[in-house]
C-alpha cells in the first residue's frame, strides 16, 4: 500500500507529458469528483476537462471553473450540461464530446449517492441511483471507448465501492431490483457495487489497452448520505442526523487527502504500467496479468485482485449481467 507521502510524491511528478490532457468527469460538480478535478488542475499541467453535470449545478460549476482557471491558466474546463441519470442524455453528451475530441485520456465517473429512502425511478424507468452508479456509467464507457482507445495511456475510473464485491453479491434474477419488496438501501448499494465490477471486468478484458479501475473513496464528508429520497421525519433521517453524520465527520479523510488519492489513481503507472513512473509494487488486477483485468482499488490506493470472488462472478453472474446491460443500453449504443 503506498503511503500518503508516496502518493503525493508521485502526483508532484505530473506534468504535461504525464497528465491526462483530455478528461471527462461525470459527477464532479461536487464531492470526490470535484476534489479530484481540483487536485488535477493544481498540478499546473495543461489540461482540458469536460465537467458534465445537471442544470441545477450550473451556477456552482461556473464559480468553480472561474476559480480553477484563475489558479491554473493552462487548464480549460468545459461546462457540459446533461441530466446524466437519463441514458438519452448520456448518449447526447458523449456524441458531443466525441465530435470535439478524437481522443480522451481519462474518464472519471463518480455520480451517485447512498440509495437510502424510497425507490425512485427516472423517466426511462430505471432506479435513479442504479442509473447514476451503474447504467449511465457503463454507457459513458461504451460510448467513449473509441476515443479512449485512440489515446496513448487511457484510463477509466468508477468511484463507488471497489473491494466490497462478494461471490454471490448480485441478484441475477432481479438485476434491477424491481420485484416488490426486493429494494432496500443495503441491497441496492451492494448490487450496484457488484454490478460495476462484473461489467467493468468484462469491458476491461475486451479492451486491454485501456486501464480500468473500480475505486472505493473511503469515508469522505461530501454530504452524500443526504441525497436519497428520505422522509425527513423518518427514523432513518434521525439515524443519519444523530449517528451517521457525526461518525462520518469523525472518520472521514480530509478533502485534500481524498483528492490526492484519486489523482494518484488517475495517473500512476502502478495501475497497468502506463502513467507517472511507479517503482513500488505494481498493482494487481482481476486477471492478475499486466493488462486486460479490472483494478479494484481501495481508498488507500492498494489493489485487491479478488482472486476467489471474481472467477465466480465471471462464471455465474457476468453473462446475465452483460445480457441485461445490452437490453437496457442497446437503444443508446
Ligand atoms: N463520500 C463517501 O464517503 C462515499 C463512500 C462510499 C461510496 N461513495 C460513493 O462514491 C460516489 C461519489 O461519492 P461523492 O461523495 O463524491 O458523491 P456526491 O458528492 O454526493 O455526488 C457526486 C455527484 O453525483 C451527482 N448526483 C447526485 N444525485 C444526482 C441526481 N439525482 N442526478 C444527477 N446527478 C446527481 C452530484 O451532482 P450535483 O453536484 O448536481 O448534486 C455530484 O456531481 C457515489 O456513488 C457515492 O455513493 C461515497
Task: Give me the secondary-structure topology.
Elements: H1 4-12, E1 22-26, H2 31-41, E2 47-53, H3 58-71, E3 75-81, H4 87-100, E4 106-109, H5 128-149, E5 155-159, H6 185-206, E6 211-215, H7 235-251, H8 255-267, E7 294-297, H9 310-329
Parallel strand pairs: 1-2, 1-4, 2-3, 4-5, 5-6, 6-7
Helix pairs in contact: 1-8, 2-8, 4-5, 5-6, 6-9
This protein binds NADP nicotinamide-adenine-dinucleotide phosphate.
The site of NADP nicotinamide-adenine-dinucleotide phosphate has 31 residues, from α2 and α5.
Concise description?
Keywords: Oxidoreductase. The chain has 333 residues and is α/β, with parallel strands linked by helices.
| CATH uppermost class | Alpha Beta
> What is the number of strand segments?
7
Written as H for each helix and E for each strand, in order along the chain, the element string is HEHEHEHEHEHEHHEH
In terms of DSSP E residues, the strand content is 5-15%
N→C terminal distance: 38 Å
Percentage of residues in helical conformation: 40-55%
| Overall pLDDT score | 96
CATH topology heading:
Rossmann fold
